[in-house]
Design goal:
Chain B: Its main location: membrane. The complex is a heterodimer of chains A (386) and B (295). Chain A is α+β, with helices and mostly antiparallel strands. Chain A has eight helices and 20 strands. Chain A has two domains: 234 residues, 3-Layer(aba) Sandwich (Rossmann fold); 142 residues, OB fold (Dihydrolipoamide Acetyltransferase, E2P) (Beta Barrel). Chain A starts with 8 loop residues before the first strand and ends in a 40-residue tail after the last strand. Chain B contains twelve helices and two strands; from the N terminus they run H-E-E-H-H-H-H-H-H-H-H-H-H-H. The two termini of chain B are 44 Å apart. The chains are: A alpha+beta (386), B mainly alpha (295). The structure holds adenosine-5'-triphosphate and magnesium ion. The site of adenosine-5'-triphosphate has 12 residues of chain A, from strand 2 and helix 1.
């Protein structure tokens, strides 16, 4: 690889304020060349605003944006050397597909012969050769999406920004386009910043996910990091489907228990007042004469590959995902267990607490390879796992 | 059998729904048109005598009537003077007030004001601008030490004066259509082209203008029809004078019908006007429409 430092993007304490709203609040991150970075977050958290500031479509109120070695904070969009795919595609309705794709090349006064050659290459890349003469209105949603992609690829800018490019497509097409975009990015070695509020898209496409909330970065890391070590209760609830269970912890004797359930200690006493997070897929349901936290089945939902159980524990509710079909009528009493490393503790402020270790209370739970099932029985509540 | 009657009933139902509009159109558009056409083939009967059928004699008269040709020429100049100018100004104003500028609501209002005024009122205002001694324009010229112009009395200037007033009146109206069309253009189009460093000028000609084409067409047809249809201001400003210098076709029709009491000759000119407008409409629907992108 040649020196592709011109693809590097750096944000330093970038903010965007509108009158009294702060859409983006002093966020910083570095994107290395060739990375596929996802900006993930709920609606209104400032993802689009961040992306638009990088593109130059919105001026940063404070902070500094660098692309390559250049400070581009005050540069117009056309001088930043990047392309963008809009959620609405932003195709020119009166121009044919071919004219739409080469629009930018004409603006940049690329000679006609070269234009034609690049068009042919890109059209083949995104499989649009048969539609070049059509108007956007005569295309399906997926085809329009491809035109928008082609338009950003043909510019040969090393950086491509995408703002929810797949949200107007149906579920199947979205899956297909996800793979296509990912493959294209890898093939062309592009640096991509991709905005989405869909955690599935984020997990499956990104090399790196930046999770945002209220204009701030909550967590920045590889997808599996976000899944296995959520930095806050918010991050935990945002990633995974169904979302991670978050139950309130109350103090009891020398340990913390699930609020309203006093029998089994699940965390050290210091965790009381905070929350315990367990992913539905990490919960094991055992008969009532087994070991673990006593629970009652409230409801079950069969999804084909697995069954989602709604469970009541004390005053709290949890969901458990069991592979295959299970028929547990509501009211059935059972016990729940999970591996200690599957339990996440969050403080009262919602932040992850790594200083505490969840209590291992069940001898039978040994889901993670390499971890023995040697835990303390439930009667030894309060003992802290090393 | 049952299917047949229900089909019949649907047809009847449809016809009934059409009836009110059809009756109104027939009474107030088609019947008068036909009556005018028939009228144009007669000479008026004097002193109670019945009108006399003369075939195309009225048209013969029309062709030989130098005043008619003068008026037709005036109307052509009037159309050429008002239409492109008012459309260009309307587009310019719309682009201006569509941009983010402080107090644009006020500017929009200001531009639109001439439209709300009735033509007669507007003409009265301009009467004051154009008045030879006390008029605003001549006062301003006087302040600059220039001698005044007889804006409405000088045959070589009068038509231009009328044209200027019409442009002033029409541009604001057309601006509203352009403004509506501009606001329906998604802002992402501008952003997408900005990302490629497209200049404003280039964006206007490659995107905005083509997307405004349906509006331009609509405005163009309206302007054309207005150029023939609206003569209210002539009643106030010039009454077609001096020496027919500002006379327009419809005003000439009015003069013939109600000043010279030559109803059939007025009908003849009306038929000619209708023919011209029909040609314009045909051109619009047959040629321009096909080349225009409608969203
Ligand atoms: N032009 C604007 N003027 C004022 N406030 C704005 C403007 N644009 C966005 N905002 C505010 O900034 C915040 C962030 O908006 P942004 O569009 O970045 O959200 P988002 O994360 O992209 O959400 P979504 O997933 O719904 O697209 C929102 O609270 C929004 O109301
Ligand atoms: Mg957004």
């Amino acid at each position: 690889m040649t020196n592709n430092n011109h693809q590097r993007i750096r944000l330093e304490a970038v903010s965007k304020r509108w009158d009294d709203t702060t859409a983006v609040d002093a966020i910083s991150f570095d994107v290395t060349p060739g990375q596929f970075v996802i900006l993930l977050g709920p609606s209104g958290c400032g993802k689009s605003t961040t992306l638009r500031m990088i593109a130059g479509l919105e001026e940063a109120s404070a902070g500094r944006i660098e692309i390559g070695e250049r400070d581009v904070t005050r540069l117009p969009p056309g001088d930043r050397g990047l392309s963008m795919v809009f959620q609405s595609y932003a195709l020119f309705p009166h121009l044919s597909v071919a004219d739409n794709i080469v629009f930018g090349l004409r603006s940049r006064k690329v000679p006609k012969a070269e234009r034609r050659e690049r068009l042919a290459r890109v059209a083949q890349l995104v499989d649009l050769e048969a539609y070049l003469e059509r108007k956007p209105a005569q295309l399906s949603g997926g085809q329009r999406q491809r035109v928008a992609l082609a338009r950003s690829i043909i510019s040969e800018h090393p950086i491509c920004l995408m703002d929810e490019p797949l949200s107007n497509l149906d579920a199947r097409l979205r899956g297909e386009m996800r793979r296509e975009i990912k493959a294209l990015q890898a093939r062309l070695g592009m640096t991509v910043i991709y905005v989405t509020h869909d955690q599935v898209e984020a997990m499956s496409m990104g090399d790196r996910v930046i999770l945002m909330q209220d204009g701030r970065i909550v967590q920045d890391g590889a997808p599996d990091e976000l899944y296995s070590r959520p930095a806050s209760a918010f991050a935990a609830s945002f990633i995974g489907s169904p979302a991670m269970n978050l139950v309130k912890l109350a103090a009891s004797d020398a340990a913390a228990v699930i609020d309203g359930e006093t029998e089994v200690a699940v965390a050290p006493a210091a965790a009381a007042g905070g929350q315990l997070g367990i992913r539905p897929e990490d919960i094991e349901v055992q008969p009532i004469d087994g070991s673990g936290v006593p629970a009652e089945v409230i409801d079950e939902e069969y999804l084909g590959a697995d069954t989602i159980l709604q469970l009541g524990v004390g005053s709290q509710r949890l969901r458990a995902r069991l592979p295959g079909k299970h028929s547990l009528s509501s009211g059935t009493r059972c016990r729940l267990a999970w591996a200690p490393e599957a339990a996440h503790l969050f403080g009262a402020d919602g932040l992850r607490r790594d200083d505490l270790t969840p209590v291992a209370f069940s001898a039978t739970v040994a889901r993670t390879a390499g971890k023995g099932g040697a835990g303390a029985p439930s009667s030894t509540a309060g003992s802290t796992h090393p | 059998m049952a299917a047949m009657t229900s089909y019949r009933r649907m047809q009847l139902y449809g016809a009934l729904l059409l009836l009110p509009a059809a009756v109104l159109l027939a009474t107030f558009a088609y019947l008068p048109t036909i009556a005018t056409l028939i009228n144009s083939l007669f000479l008026p009967g004097f002193r109670g005598e019945p009108a006399e059928f003369v075939g195309l004699e009225n048209y013969q008269l029309l062709i030989e009537d130098t005043t008619f040709w003068r008026v037709a020429r005036n109307n052509l100049i009037y159309a050429l003077g008002t239409i492109p100018t008012s459309i260009a100004i309307a587009l310019g104003m719309a682009l201006f007030v569509n941009a983010r500028l402080p107090g644009r609501g006020f500017v929009r209002m200001a531009y639109f004001t001439p439209t709300i005024l009735p033509m007669i009122a507007a003409a009265n205002i301009w009467m004051f601008f154009y008045a030879p001694q006390i008029g605003l324009f001549n006062k301003l010229l006087g302040a600059l030490g220039l001698s005044g112009v007889n804006w409405l009395g000088d045959p070589s200037v009068a038509l231009t004066s009328v044209i200027v007033m019409t442009v002033w009146k029409e541009a604001g109206f057309f601006m509203i259509f352009y403004l509506a069309a501009l606001q329906s253009i998604p802002p992402e189009l501008k952003e997408a082209s900005d990302l490629e460093g497209t200049s404003r000028w280039s964006f206007f000609w490659r995107v905005t203008f083509p997307l405004l084409m349906p509006t331009t067409l609509f405005v163009l047809i309206n302007a054309l029809i207005n150029a023939v249809r609206v003569v209210d201001h002539l009643f106030i400003l010039t009454k077609g004078g001096p020496n027919n210098a500002t006379n327009l076709l419809l005003y000439y029709v009015y003069e013939n019908a109600f000043s010279f009491f030559d109803r059939t000759y007025a009908a003849t000119i009306t038929v000619v006007i209708l023919l011209v407008l029909a040609v314009v409409a045909t051109v619009k629907f047959a040629i321009l429409d096909r080349r225009t992108h409608y969203q």
